[in-house]
Automatic annotation (TrEMBL):
PROSITE patterns: HIT_2, ZINC_FINGER_C2H2_1, ZINC_FINGER_C2H2_2
Designated name of the protein: Aprataxin
Main location: nucleus
GO molecular function, one term: DNA 5'-adenosine monophosphate hydrolase activity
Length: 210
């Protein structure tokens, strides 16, 4: 069972079967929080007719945005070949918004280098594409699961998702394999060195930005 989530802190969220199956959670359930952002101008970084961009509330890097469709699509299990152009648009908007945010922040190097993708098993309902700078300097990046969710194959590259959708008409996720990836050892995404603890890995990451 998923625990409740307070408004100011992020507790470990186990993806519920509701989310994995593409069903909708109850309106006030923590996993429905992203839906509220679609209608809340105060948290929006960008919005157009098709999608909305917000800052991740618990950013795992200096710049961490979420791009969501305005249409109510629960997750990748709910997308089909009619959504290809929407996912392409979300990727284009994600790239353009990342560039603008990085330029405004005068970001350089890994702070201005981004990856775009989806978690294989999301915790939050409403489809969302992560836009994340590759510094991973953040107090909210705390656990091995956080790290591996952004640096292993658990992070599904947005371009690959679009290619798979075009080729097959659907996205299938091997949930057993994906869950195992979250327990991978801690490997630096830049130099492949291994670390025994998150504090050691985070200390090491500082070396890559100097
Ligand atoms: P995931 O469902 O694993 O792809 O990731 C969900 C993301 O949503 C995480 O990066 C959280 O930090 C983020 N998040 C959780 N609650 C909120 C919220 N209320 N507003 C914005 N981002 C959130
Ligand atoms: Zn390294």
């Amino acid at each position: 069972m998923a625990s409740s989530l307070s408004s100011t802190s992020e507790k470990r969220k186990t993806p519920s079967s509701d989310n994995v199956n593409g069903n909708q959670p109850k309106k006030n359930h923590w996993s429905a929080a992203l839906s509220a952002a679609i209608d809340d101008e105060s948290v929006q970084v960008y919005k157009d007719d098709l999608c909305t961009v917000i800052n991740d509330k618990f950013p795992k890097a200096c710049i961490h945005l979420l791009v969501m469709p305005n249409e109510n699509i629960a997750n990748l299990k709910s997308v089909n070949n009619t959504h290809v152009s929407l996912l392409k648009h979300m990727l284009k908007v994600g790239k353009e918004t990342a560039e603008k945010v990085a330029a405004k922040a005068n970001a350089r190097g890994s702070f201005a280098h981004f990856r775009y993708g989806y978690h294989a098993i999301p915790s939050m309902a409403l489809l969302h594409m992560h836009v994340i700078s590759q510094d991973f300097i953040s107090d909210s990046l705390k656990t091995k699961k956080h790290w591996n969710s952004f640096t292993s194959d658990y992070f599904l590259d947005a371009s690959q998702v679009i290619d798979d959708l075009q080729a097959n008409g659907f996205i299938r996720v091997d949930t057993v394999r994906m869950r195992k990836l979250l327990d991978n050892e801690l490997t630096c995404h830049r130099c492949s060195n291994n670390f025994t603890t998150m504090p050691k890995l985070k200390q090491h990451l500082l070396m890559h930005i100097s």
